[in-house]
Amino acid sequence: MAWYYRLVNLLVHLFFLAYYVFAPPYLLAGIDPTKIQNGFMAGTSSGEQNTTSFQRHSAKNDEFGGGSKFLTLWNLIFQTFYFFWCCVTDLVLTSGSRSPIAKKFVAFRDWFLAAVAFPIGTLVVSMFWAIWAVDRELVFPKELDEFFPPWLNHVLHTTVLPILLIEMFLVQHKLPSRKVGVMGTLFVGLSYLLWVLYLGYAMDIWVYPVLKVLSGFYFGLFLTVSAFFLLGLYIVGEKISEFCWRGYPDSDYEFTKID
């Protein structure tokens, strides 16, 4: 692999990593920083109104579980970790692309993309905008516009998918066996579902109210449909990667996939 190709990969991964690292401070603050400076911290009459609204908003987020209740935050962590690992892998490859440690780093990078980063990221984007199209109040009430600027909403719910597609187009991946990849996807999905159900049944905090009214057959149907949807997203990611690099031989270092 030419040195400049590795350099381009590293620069792209660093840019995407910085993109995601920049978002959490605003997400955790839960408010537009310009409003904090001009209203909340200024102490003006309009600032007092912002303070009251901000306090009400913060109180809601101080419930047990905090932001971990939302798949959006899980996905932000996944995407940040993925591009961090990509940067580390790019640096490791400069020390010798055929070394055993390089193969392990590449294998884990490709597994994480296939099993976690792409299916979970695509799920967040598709579900968020599908629900928004029906009724935005169910997923992102208008009152949140006061605290979350539009660009942050797009960082969390829109640009995730284009960024992944760009990365898959620029970097050749040797994806794991479908069995291992799907097991990883379903494990993450089941982990989040169990967390949400625990919050609901044990703490009476229903992140998604629809789960509260599902029971028996309909609850089982929901789990089945969700599992197959995640499986479908995994296969879509697999096919996209194959499409982007069809006809191209493996790069000059030996890929080792996780079986």
Average pLDDT, rounded to a whole number, is 79
Q: Termini separation (Å)?
A: 25 Å
Unreliable sequence segments:
30-62, 252-257
What percent of residues adopt helix (DSSP H or I)? over 70%
Oligomer: single chain
Broad shape: globular
Helix-strand pattern? HHHHHHHHHHH
Class computed from helices, strands and strand pairing: mainly alpha
Write up this protein:
Helices cover 72% and strands 0% of the residues. The protein is globular, with a radius of gyration of 21 Å. The chain contains eleven helices and no strands. Helix 1 runs antiparallel to helix 5 (71-93). The protein is mainly α.
Task: Provide a concise account of the structure shown.
Helices cover 72% and strands 0% of the residues. It has eleven helices and no strands. The chain has helices spanning 3-21, 24-29, 33-40, 45-61, 71-93, 100-135, 150-157, 160-170, 178-203, 210-213, 216-244.
Helices and strands, with pairings:
Elements: H1 3-21, H2 24-29, H3 33-40, H4 45-61, H5 71-93, H6 100-135, H7 150-157, H8 160-170, H9 178-203, H10 210-213, H11 216-244
Output the keywords.
globular, 11 helices, mainly alpha, 72% helix, 259 residues
